[in-house]
TrEMBL record:
Substrate binds at S151, I152, D153, R188, M195, G196, R197, E252, R280, H286, V287, Q288, R289. This is ATP-dependent 6-phosphofructokinase. It comes from the Eukaryota. Mg(2+) binds at D106. Residues 1-368 are annotated as: N-terminal catalytic PFK domain 1. The active site is at D153. It is found in: Cytoplasm. Belongs to the phosphofructokinase type A (PFKA) family. ATP-dependent PFK group I subfamily. Eukaryotic two domain clade "E" sub-subfamily. Belongs to the phosphofructokinase type A (PFKA) family. ATP-dependent PFK group I subfamily. Eukaryotic two domain clade 'E' sub-subfamily. Transmembrane segments: none annotated.
Amino acid sequence: QRNIAVMTSGGDAPGMNANVRAVIRTAIFRGSRAFAIYEGYTGLVRGGPEYIREMHWHDVRGWLAEGGTNIGTARCKEFRERAGRLQACFNLISAGIDALVVCGGDGSLTGADLFRAEWPSLVEELASSGKISADQATQYATLNICGTVGSIDNDMASTDATIGAYSSLARICQAIDYIDATANSHQRAFVVEVMGRHCGWLALMAGIATNADYIFIPEKPASKKDWEDHMCGIVGKHRKRGKRKTIVIVAEGAISNDLKPITCKDVLKVLVDRLGLDTRITTLGHVQRGGTAVAYDRILATRQGVAAVDAVLAGNADTPSPMIAVAENKIVSRPLVDAVRLTKQVAEAIENRDFAKAISLRDAEFNE
Ligand code: ADP
């Protein structure tokens, strides 16, 4: 029998509840005890019965479809420091937990991977300072950690889809459908800002799914002159053909190749000045995170929750921590450390405007 804990961390995403539910119920079904760590790494660092609670089958009843995360999430500065992770190690051992499933984005999984790598030295330090007994040090010599990826941005390397991305996409499409009606009525243009700092997946997919006229994503920068001419050419052509509305989608991380962000205001100004369009801006903001999880996310989160428990039950100290992914519709397990490294490399390449490198890293991943 194992004592398996689950937590959610970083930005909330629809489907996290379904993931937590699946982890808890699978753990119980396999004969283990299940625990939830409340409020992300903050709960891990603070510890105690307020934050680390045993969960029973009925505790997660009704969680499958619910958006957000019922066990809370947080951004936790203390966990970034070794002292915070030492305390977290102590709290887990005190609660008798020997396996941890973390559902979060790349930041959370980076933290999880670091925690796993450090674990033996943390245990040693706790034992030598007398905070835990020698028996406890032996019993908790390793911690099985498994990551599941919850993120609306779909920005994690090594997985085709992250939990929450399709729900967020559905919400964006719904919002743009609403905007379409009013845009069409008044022959207006709307510039819609969607989330995605390093990753244009939401903007790109929403563009396809809503028949947007033009999109801006971080991965495809252009000079100011080029994007202005290109966008005005396309939007102007659509208008000449009789289209009564214009939708331009801007990912929040969109940039031009002179290192400047492309903002909705920049786009509005061009549509007004050059095409004379009556133009409005809609920033979707946190609406994109809300609401129930779409069927795809419920299913993905459930399948991944089952796989995560099975991975920690099968895991041993020699194998690197797994991250549960989906590749070509199959639930697979990938080394967490590789996924984290690759995600960071792509984000850094985009931040440094080295798009050729970002694209080749992504291509290499897909050609694996
Ligand atoms: P996300 O998981 O959605 O990418 P963040 O990047 O904010 O969100 O990470 C969530 C939390 O994970 C942080 O507040 C911090 O506690 C932890 N974390 C992130 N990066 C690290 C790191 N390099 N080392 C330790 N902990 C980290």
